Target: ABC transporter permease YtrF
Amino acid sequence: MTVLKTSMRNFFAHKGRMALSAVAVLLSVAFVCGTLVFTDTMNTTFDKLFATTASDVTVSAKGSSDTGETTSGTGKPPVMPASVLGEVRGVDGVKSADGTVFSTSVTVVDADKDSLSPTSGAPTIVGNWNANDARTMKITSGAAPRGSDQIMVDADTADKHHLGLGDEIGVITAVGTHKAKVSGIAEFTVTNPGAAIFYLDTKTAQRALVGETGVYTNINVTAASGVSDAQLKKDVAAGLDGAYKVQTAKEVADANAADVQEFMGVMKYAMLGFAGIAFLVGIFLIINTFSMLVAQRTREIGLMRAIGSSRRQVNRSVLAEALLLGLFGSVLGVGAGVGLAIGLMELMGQMGMHLSTDDLTVAWTTPVVGLVLGVVVTVLAAYLPARRAGKVSPMAALRDAGAPADAKAGWVRALIGLVLTGAGGYGLYLAAAADKASDGSLWLGAGVVLTLIGFVVIGPLLAGGVVRVLSAVLLRLFGPVGRMAERNALRNPRRTGATGAALMIGLALVACLSVVGSSMVGSATDQLDKTVGADFIIQSDMGAPITAQAVEAAKSAEGVARFTEYKLLDATLTTPDGKTSKGETINAADPSYAQDLRTETVAGDLADAYRPDSMSVFEGFAKKHGIELGSTIEVDFRDGSTAELTVRAITSDEAVIDKGAMYASIATAEKYVPADKMPLDVLLFASAKDGQEAAAYTSLKAALDDYPQYTVRDQTDYKEALQDQIGQLLNMIYGLLALAVIVAVLGVVNTLALSVVERTREIGLMRAIGLSRRQLRRMIRLESVVIALFGALLGLGLGMGWGATAQQLLALEGLTVLEIPWPTITTVFVASAFVGLIAALVPAFRAGRMNVLNAIATE
Model:
């Protein structure tokens, strides 16, 4: 009880000093709990949606996925004849059955040809209005579509794009473009996670999506009273002789939920990873806080020891303070996490994914995880300072000698740090020298972890040298004030090392990812310049195939010398060694593709692979199956017949673009795959006539004006798009890493604030002999800047080393260009100086306000 009282008194006596450490715990716990609440809420939302929208039993066409429609390479959904509906209705136990037809491989545009598809990644669905949809949607304006000139839209999409009754909408599919006017607006009775949904009448939907009437993609079956879903599924499957996929409502809902949870799982663990980084950075802050508090209470600890307190009691007193800090920060963090989750839901709403707070899900495990993590991390971080406090001898403490300085421990620490850093460096060397990416990745992971720990351990040793170099470059310019700032930063190398290490972790990750991202862009750009011979690339950014109508429109453009169509066909290969290789892809293209993509071969000429009944394979596949030029491979096309194709070329495994591709001509594919089963083009290449590049570019864009889902890019556009994609990904990661940087900044603030308190008497004496308030504040700001730059130098140097090693590993996959993003590195380094300035504002202000006489009188 005495220990608890002492801890409570000390905790509240230093509540201002504890605040920043509590904020660090709060932020980290909030990020963890916010992630858990947000992902749980999304899962709840989707589970409710899938459970509500699924009929008792669903019958799907051959080739459809477990979640419903699967659009084939033809751009059309797989269908079943309408006669199946009659068969299902005749099965015992069926109360009612309705045929539906829908597709997600559609583009919907308004009268101005602007896309109405969600920007959140949610699907665009066009289907027929049916009884199953009427269970989850309520028509709030107008009426359901009746006739080919009418279409109904969901209320969220109508609000977002300002659609009203009578507005014209175009539905672009593989069949063609169907235009209709808005006849009604329907509102979800459950939460709509962001999909854009459009309804046509049944016959119009069949013609617009499939190109023929009398077919359905699904049949929704309702069970008669007293008939279970499982029994109904069994009876329906028996009635159809197992010719179609039959699923219960639970099976459909589970399949849909599994797809969502796979995506949510990736996002969840990625965000928790960043929260873990923030926790790691927070550990340094807490260690520094308690180390300095213990140092400032040396005499008090000595008195406690002198009157009978044992080492264990002193240790417990400090750990009890940490426990209080952890509990306080964690409780607030759990509450803040719920608020963060609601904020993320609002943000997703702005992006088009609507999540209702009615579905807010806070599982009992979430606050428990937050509290346990926050408390355990805080107590573990405080253990070393607590142990150090217990070692203070009563007599040394009463003389205010401070915590025992253990020179031997310092040398041991330095030796361990050097060993760890050396081992990590050797791991990075082995990763860079690896022959296989799988082997090298293990060494890379080990090298990153060991060098990071090594730099943290060796931080105090590095602080002395690095701070002196920085001081010689920066602080000496400020005369005596700069030299005093340097001495203050060097006064306690362990503290400076820990403070700089907190900032180092976040910046090391930033530098590493920047190097990898820039190298990926540089490598791809280099490959484009070396291998791509086409002037223009036409494709959908959403991965949708290019419809035949769009291809014909593109071919009408003026100034184009040649077009190359490019398709992907699924096939099973039987190689000369008698082995069967399933799930392979044949890249079928026009013969001009050999000019559009200059792929290096190790045997033969790639142009020969486009001869009739010919193909190419890649080097690794050829070695694995003993294939040589002239070998014959049996190719069983999934939607066609079996062909005997002769290998005319073997491509190099060093290729980056289309690495591992096997080529054949479209003409060869057409011999074995029926026209109605032939996949649409996934890419279209075009080359301009000599001197007409600009005119051809403009003409192509104009020709595809009616097809906004496709983008025409020249090589410059393509490089910029690639850079933008990687840049957006990096910016998102940097945003998440900002949490760790914020916690590190709090660490600098806390270190300076406690350092000012520690040096109160010294500051009073300096003021007494003539140091002005302005000079005092400048001294503290300069000390903060040099600590921040120390952390930035370590972090950026370490991160660039990691990034360069990762690039050497990626070079095995063809990313051969190492590019250091010096503008980004320089910006981060300079920004670190500003971080130091900002962190010093409050401590410098408080130091400047000190009363000189009171400061001198402070013991």
